[in-house]
């Protein structure tokens, strides 16, 4: 039986009228796991947000029908949509810190939804929250309930976000790239939990992803988008093993495969040399005591030759990011690292890009620090390096 029906959906940029999503149609059956697949900018997230009625500023729904469990969402009032978000449909976003308020405790944020949608007492709300935290395999639900989101790793925050959404047992769960920032093992743990909770509550799942590996493991059907248009739809097996569209074939061919091992370095003086790197974080200061510290990195040795690519691999919380050479260079007591110029790309660009500045400003500021040049030259240089788009 069909839970969600989307017919001829069109989403446009408000100013230019350019179609972001152009005439796509699909259905989600009750208890089904459907994947929306496509590259960045294909319209996956815009289509999902249209279902929730949460399109960002600058986009508008220009046509089509969206029906959830017999309710026409396109004509529903704002008050009715607020009542539907939570018990009828919920969403897990790519970065949980976008949804979790760092200034409010985990328990208070989880309890808010229950308090708005169900008439139950505070004690019952607390009990349900603790039970759900335990269900998503949080080791210490009581401590987590009173803690704040920034105190947890990405994998733990995504579990907390999943617990908050599933607490209201929605009929439809929209998961927008929920594991992109997580390591492979944590990805599987989080998605296995999501699938288990969905089955327990009879929830349908709409998975937004570009990862065909996740599609093959979890989805029954898939819909492929490209530049806002649907190019192919079918069962997961058909999409992965006998795709019809040329674009879908390229997506499948781009799946990572085991290849030959890269050549070993030939010797010589390394560009970067780290010996005995140790990094420890002090414990949190309480009123009358300080919590025990945490050893993040202990005795790491690393050499990187000029032109060489070295992969640092490990699960969430293994010390990968902390072990970057800059930490050793910053404090001689932590180890030894050659002093060299270096640049880095962070896992989440939004944490480094200011939402208040145009895209060209960060690149221009970076170049201004390294070279005293006229503004026109800095902009031209930034454009040539891909930092900004000069028009």
Task: Describe what you observe in this structure.
- The protein is of the alpha/beta class and 391 residues long.
- The chain folds into three domains: 2-253, Rossmann fold (3-Layer(aba) Sandwich); 272-337, no CATH class; 355-391, no CATH class.
- Helices cover 32% and strands 23% of the residues.
- It contains 13 helices and 13 strands.
- The chain has helices spanning 44-52, 78-84, 106-117, 122-135, 141-146, 154-166, 184-201, 212-218, 236-241, 246-253, 325-330, 360-370, 375-384; strands at 2-13, 19-29, 33-37, 59-68, 71-72, 89-92, 172-176, 204-209, 221-226, 229-235, 272-281, 294-304, 336-337.
- The strands form three sheets. The chain has a six-stranded mixed sheet, with helices on both faces. Strands 2-1-4-5 form a four-stranded antiparallel sheet. The protein has a three-stranded antiparallel sheet with strand order 12-11-13.
- A hairpin with a 5-residue loop joins strand 1 and strand 2 (19-29).
- It is globular, with a radius of gyration of 24 Å.
- It starts with a strand and ends in a 7-residue tail after the last helix.
- The model is unreliable at 327-342 and 385-391 (pLDDT under 50).
